[in-house]
Amino acid sequence: MISKKILYILGIPVALALLVYFFNYNPEGGAGLFLPCPFKYLTGLHCPGCGSQRALHNLLHLDFAKVASYNFLFLPAVGVFLYNLFIRVHNHYKEKKLVNYIYKPIFPRVVLGLVIVFWIARNIPVKPFSFLAP
Hints:
The protein is mainly α. The protein has helices at residues 4-23, 38-43, 52-60, 64-70, 74-93, 106-121.
């Protein structure tokens, strides 16, 4: 189990970064704090993570339609993160332990398959696939 000290050491910078993202940084403007995607720069194609910075910014502003338009897999990824967090907190404080399906052997294979299919589909320049591009 992760100690509280480590959680504070990691949690405070993450919280500060999210506050900066919320108030002072809008990646939709073009120039940003981060380098452009090297995969897109080299190939001209979208990687599975393209649009995630803009999706995070819009998620912090609760604009779920824009989140989905920038990166359709971002909301399910946040859902998996929250599910894992809930199960871990629940199992830490309750006697009745819940099964965390993320740790089943099939889960990473399914996620990898979905990411590969998404990666290919978002680079097909034909509707409806073109809606997956950021």
